[in-house]
Structures are given as structure tokens and as C-alpha cells.
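Progress narrative, work stream C.
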Amino acid sequence: MIPSATDPPLIELSDVRKSYNLGLPSEAEVLHGLSLRVERGGFIALMGPSGSGKSTLLNIVGLLERMSSGSYKLQGEEMDGLDDAGLTLRRRTTLGFVFQFHHLLPAFSALENVTLPALMSEGRVSARQLERARELLAAVGLANAMDKRPAELSGGMQQRVAIARALVLEPALVLADEPTGNLDTSSSNEVFTLLRRMHAERGTSFVVVTHDPRLAARCDRLVELVDGRIARDEAITHTPAS
């Protein structure tokens, strides 16, 4: 879907702070008044050294952790003040997740793993969701591996299953935390190319945490964190060869 000029940003963070061990001598603030907008249809690389706050930021955007202060609007709706049930509902209906380690259930087939979010969200898998899971597995090149279990798939194939799983509920935004960090160079390239194709074909927004500058250069925007602050936020210009 092409976003309207009147649509609010997909994500809007304003002066977000996050501290751990509040009120204790060991209290530490890891995000220091961070502000960030993610427009609909964006494909963003999130980079930064270890300890810069990338994982904390991703967890806050993913509604897995609460911020200590500030404002977080998801599709124009303020998230602060929602109870756990409300956050869980927004997470299930709006966000998808891909991690460095695929976290597939070993006893489930590829198809069953992809339908798992629907099963967890609604207690059942509808015919439409099952068909969408089949379509996604075909789209990621696994049409002939739907009944195979993770142990029967290569690392790159397992990560493709995880990508299909992240997309099955048609999220507006996929958060990918080092999605190629556990793969060899060839598989890494294939998986990242797949993410870009899913973005182009389906209009899904992506925020991708990566340490690989070559992969970051293939994104549309680079956000760099240093010591819990945004040190750089700029569009990436692609040459025809890239």
C-alpha cells in the first residue's frame, strides 16, 4: 500500500530514555533522549558498536521493553500507558521479528513454524492464513520444503522460514536483529536479497540491525547509535551497480 501524505509516521519516538536498575546505586541510563521517525515503506539499517543501545532501542520499538520516559507513537497511537495486553495486541498485529538465530521449533515442519504466529494469536490457523503461509514459503524459495523440519534444512533455508513466519500476519514493520549474522557470506547475501524483495513487493517496512557495512549500504537509510544517542541519520544513495 502506498502511504498517504496525511498518514502519521509508522514509528515516532520523541525524547525516549531508558534506564535500568532504577533507584539503585547501579542505575544506568542507556538511551539518552533519543528521537526517531520511521516512515511507512522504509528500509533502515541500524548500526553502532556493542553497548551503543541498539538492542534496547529495538526492544522498545518491538514493544518488548518499556521506555523509562518519552513518547512512542505506533501508527499515530501513543504506546505509553497501554497495559501488557494492549502492547501484546499491537505487537502481534503490527510487528514481525527476525533474529540472528531463527528460533524455529524443531518438532514442527517449515509450514507449521510459519503458521505459529497465527496459532498463538488466535488459537487456530484459518484457511486464509494457511494459504498465505504456503504462498510465503513459495516466495522464499521453499515450495518443495514445506513439510521438512528445521534439522533437514540448511542455515540459510531455516532463516528463510523465519522470514516467512515474520510476514505471515502481514505486519506493517519487521524488526530484524542481525538476521544474517549466523550465516556464511553466500547465504547472508541470499537472505538480505530476500528481505529487499519482500520490501519491494509487499511494501513492508524494515529496520535491520547489522554490523556489516556492505549490507547497510544496500538499505535506504542509515541510523547509527553511539553511546545511546543517534550519531548519524542519513539517506543512502544507490548507484545503478548496487
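Work stream C, second folded protein:
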Amino acid sequence: MKRFVIVVDMQRDFVAADGALPVGGAEAIVQPMKAWLAGLRSEDVAGVLFTADTHVPAIYAASTEAEEFPPHCEKGTPGWKNVLEPDAVDPAIPVYRLEKGVFDMWAEPDLTVTAVATGEQVARDALFAELKARDVTEVTVIGVAADYCVRWAIQGLVARGFVVEVPTRLTCGITRPIEQVIANDFADAPVRLEAAA
């Protein structure tokens, strides 16, 4: 049975020590993550989705997120760029990109997902409904930050009936590591840690 993979917000502003909003330890997971992604095989993986925190200054300044965090991931800037190359993934595996303006990749209605190879766009909700229809019910989530965007990604997947796996070595949190996030927030949910990523 195939699974789907979501790579959450591996952007320079979050990963680099001199980024606008660096997540502690994020630089250390880049190489292991590249190796892990390169090891994915099309017989096991139905697709990989890279999410991108995407802000426009005028809109961000008036957002609730701006009350908690400084400006970051402004679209088109070096800090917005992903530190992982989608072409590191086996070309036989479909790769997608989703730009989101808030922590929660599920919160904004009518978001579209873009196929990296073709530029074809599909509604986010339609993509995940199609996965369920194809009996893809397990999703692996990696990236940053464990206690913010990764957490919201997991919550949305659980709400949609997916089983979620999180490799512990491939995510970092701001104030809570993924182990604590899962213990506190998903104790009774179909979410499991994978220590040997």
C-alpha cells in the first residue's frame, strides 16, 4: 500500500541560522532529509507535497501571526526559497507544491496544489480526496516547525481520516519537539513516531 509525503515549510527563513525566523536545529536536519527524500521509491510513495509559508508584507502586517512572529517568508525573497530541491525525489514520484499564508495548510479555502513537473493545478481538497479514493490512507509528515505548521498539517490529516507517521529526526520545533507535540496533542489519534528515519 502506498503512502503520501508532506514536507512542511523547509524554507531558508526557517532553516538558516541567519534566517528571519530560524527554528533551532533545522539546519542539522537538511542533509538527513535530502537523503531520506532521495531514498523514496515510486512503488511505495504516491506523491510528495512541499508546502511553502508565503507572505505578502501588506497582508502579513495586519495578520494575527504578525502579533507573534516577525516578518518572514516574503514571496520571492531568498528567505522564501525552499532549501530542498524537488528534483532530489525520484522523477517517477509526482511532486507538488502548496503555497499557504497561515500556519495551517488546511485553513484557507480554495487553495490549489501545483504539480512541479507540469505546472498543472488541482484543488488541495480534491487531491487529498483522490488519494483516499485510491486507498492511500497513510501520510508521512516531515519539516518545521513541529509545534506550529507541522502540528496543523497533522491535525488536518487526522480530521480527514489519514494515519500519520512522523520521523522524529526529520522535524524540529520552536518550543516543543515533535515527541511532546504528539504526546500532548495527539495521544488518542492515529499518529505515530518513527525513530529510525
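The CA atoms of residues 15 and 26 lie 5 Å apart. No further action is required on this item.
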